[in-house]
Amino acid sequence: MIFDLTTAQLFGFLFAAVLVTLAPGPDNLAVLSLGISRGRRAGIGFGLGCALGCFTHTLWASLGISAVLAASNTAFTLFKLAGAAYLVWLGWQALKSPGAKFAAGVRSADATSFSTYLRRGFIANAINPKVALFFLAFLPQFVPAGSAHAAAQSAVLGGLFAAQTVVVFGLIGWFAGTIGGFLMQKSRRLDQATGVLFIGLGVRLALETKG
Fold first, then answer.
1. Phi/psi at 106 (nearest 5 deg)?
2. How many other CB atoms sit within 10 Å of the CB of residue 6?
3. Cβ(170)–Cβ(48) under 8 Å?
4. By C-alpha distance, which of 36, 28, 76 is closest to 177?
5. How far apart are CA 92 and CA 79, in angstroms?
6. pLDDT per residue as tens, the chain (211 positions)
């Protein structure tokens, strides 16, 4: 038992968290598209960055910052537009990519470092206010009402959510990279498709409301 959370509660939360993470959404679609178009390193790096971003939302929820985003239209809009602009920028970078070069039918190494994809994934997730509001709404559903350790329990559950996201997104990135190996002759088109996806996600985020 951790801060009055039973094993059954923890496993129930973990099951729900995995289902939420597997459900088609901006993060896993981005991980999948990058893994296919740019390879395993890109997919896994971006996915792990998104997972690490979940830790920031756990902290925000514990400190009450997510509540500020929920209460303030101005704060929500500013974070939303920042996140949308960043996604559009990522999409533009992908559209400008010349595609992978080939020698003897083998894809050349992606010059972009793992840490760059990790950073991009982290920023894309951390500045998305919809994720912050999701944590604010999702975590309390699994915290016993009237608990004296509500903040600590939220932190534990948020950490567990982020940990399973590391595994799920890592696997998506890994297998997307494998798929990308079979599709490498379509590299330029895959980069274009990735760019369109990111720009579309950015536009969707910009148009979303808190409700």
1. -110, 135
2. 11
3. yes
4. 36
5. 20
6. 555 677 888 888 898 888 878 877 778 888 888 888 888 888 999 999 999 998 888 877 767 665 666 667 776 777 677 767 777 877 787 677 655 443 333 344 466 889 999 999 999 888 887 777 777 777 767 776 556 666 777 788 888 998 999 999 999 888 887 776 655 555 566 667 767 766 876 787 677 676 5
DSSP element (H, E) containing 61: helix 40-63
Asked if residues 134 and 76 have their Cβ atoms less than 8 Å apart, the reply is no
CA triplet 165, 168, 174: central angle to 5 degrees? Answer: 130
Q: Whole-angstrom Cα distance, residue 123 to residue 101?
A: 28
* Chain centroid to CA 138: 16
Q: Which residue bears the tokens 């996604």?
A: 87
Q: How far is CA 178 from CA 8, 138, 174, 186, in A?
A: 36, 33, 7, 14
Residue at token pair 């808190």: 210
Largest CA distance in the chain: 65
Residue type, 135: F
- Dihedral sign of CA atoms 186, 187, 188, 190 in order: positive
CB-facing half-sphere around the CA of 37: CA atoms within 13 A: 25
Contact 48, 118 (CB under 8 A): yes
According to DSSP, the β-strands at 106-107 and 102-103 are antiparallel
Q: For residue 192, give both structure tokens.
A: 């274009």
